[in-house]
Amino acid sequence: MAGMTIKDIAKKCHVGVSTVSRAMNNHPDINPETKEKILKAIEEANYVPNNSARNLKRNDAKAIAVLVKGIGNTFFSELVGILERECEKKGYSCILQYVDEQEDEWDVAIRVGKEKRLRGLVFLGGSFSQSQEKISQMEIPCVLSTICTVGMPGASLASVSVDDFKESYKMTEYLIGLGHKKIAFFCGQIKENGVIKKRLCGYQQALEEAGIPYDSTLVYEGKVDYDSGIELARKLCNENKDVTAVVATADILAIGAMKGFYEQGVSVPNDISIVGFDDLEISKYLTPGLTTVRQEISQKGEKAVELLLDNIQDADMTKREVIIPVSLSRRESVRDMRGEE
Amino acid sequence: MAGMTIKDIAKKCHVGVSTVSRAMNNHPDINPETKEKILKAIEEANYVPNNSARNLKRNDAKAIAVLVKGIGNTFFSELVGILERECEKKGYSCILQYVDEQEDEWDVAIRVGKEKRLRGLVFLGGSFSQSQEKISQMEIPCVLSTICTVGMPGASLASVSVDDFKESYKMTEYLIGLGHKKIAFFCGQIKENGVIKKRLCGYQQALEEAGIPYDSTLVYEGKVDYDSGIELARKLCNENKDVTAVVATADILAIGAMKGFYEQGVSVPNDISIVGFDDLEISKYLTPGLTTVRQEISQKGEKAVELLLDNIQDADMTKREVIIPVSLSRRESVRDMRGEE
DNA sequence: TTGTACGCGTTATCAG
DNA sequence: CTGATAACGCGTACAA
User: CA spacing 20 to 30 A to B22: which of A12, B64, B230, B334?
Assistant: First the structure.
């Protein structure tokens, strides 16, 4: 039977609605027998309380949402699971909200925040090149878990991120340490204040500190997708520079590039080495396996909800940044050039 | 300001709440000027109506949900987008519901169906080895878009799927036509009535019709993930059968197998050919590119909501099956054996 | 321990 | 065209 309500159950059990409510919500002040009886009736009748009505009442519900931009990103799906688990552990319910590539994540955030009377928000992905105005409209604490908020003003923004500059620096340094001298940089669109910009700086500094002059013609800017990787690889081959290694700012870019090099008859890692960022699940299963930077994703998830909950409780504890460590997944896409020549 | 309601807006504009409601919901009977004024006030005040209250009232809301099992499956994410777009086009709102790997998708379906007072449901993924009992508890129309419902009884079940038997048959036939005689079969767990079982039958029949005796020791059963692919490949190599081709029932299995073969020093496609199912985005970017079966995913999405909406409108039009066509994405993982020996 | 009655924020009805 | 007011289904004071 459709459209059953708490009243129907109450009637069935010859009790009042509040008793049914108490039974469902594990209230202490109820006769165990009555409770038993009611729960059985609910089970039998296959009754499920109306969610909207519930939320309407307890709009103090301890709920947060995770906003995911870029549903196809397999990197996120793992994190989402951890986020959900972590929330549950802390007694919060967690709702998932996907946002289309075209939509503005802040518009969505503000809307669902109010619609659902959320207590907090975790952002996954998106670019966050945001106007002050929108950010200040956000009335609940937020944690960005993709990009760092240092230098970003606004309401209650916190972030859990990696140090993009440093990681990129280290990655480049690693390559240099292996004897690579001419290293190209494959990346998506470089935006002021964006992750890619930071990674570019890290790359640049590592080069300079090693006494290798930075050559801007070695920076190949495209989009962050497979095809762009192919294209960039092709371009590099055509320009015929004697590059021995490539730093790609994302695994999918690196994977595309590997395909591109293959098509050009350039062998990875024999003719050219390549490294990525993200450590996608697939990266391990490629041939050759892709050397890449891995974020401690479970730690990231834990820190993110920890930070958010802190900010929810203490309104003034706002704007904390947490940097989580990363590690290098060394695989076969990099060649050791030392002792050659 | 937090927690604003329709009343606040009404007060601000010196009108009644119903007038505000009318302005928001595009009701015709309202003075354009009043409407203008109210909308401006809403905009200014940054007011967003409470979702729960809305849904509580219009529990006739035209909403359906998409249930996704296996969030990591990139194949689904594409389909989800199409489903959402298609729903919107038909004036339905569409909510996404992810279900954990451990959860029973029917339990979830029944629960959210009632919680949210949904009009219909689309299932993505999951195994559906379901008891009659649960299925009959489902009170709203459902469309399964992963598996075919032929032979499955129950409430209002419809499905959009591919003909797994036939596709597998054709794939095997294709390999045979290319001169392959000893063809192994890599698959996940074989369950009665499941897709894999059907694909196995297709493989089997293609073999037999070509006069090649079916050899059950050539069927390698594992799980549907990368590691299982590696393991199966390793097992095959160790057994040292002179297999020249492998049919894998999923791209990820095939990708894992490619890695496994590589590790064993077996070259794809020179020493062994391999084909998959799904045509994941990544399959195209592997080296060598994976030959695989592609479903017309946009068509699948369109058909799915079309079917669902039909079933929502005509309660008796239930239980229709739609088979959508597939195509072969021919890439480099298969070798033509003809004219050799 | 239990039941009655009110209110959550919204939309729909109906009388002005 | 507009404004009271009655639902929607549930949780919870408060009274019993």
Answer: B64
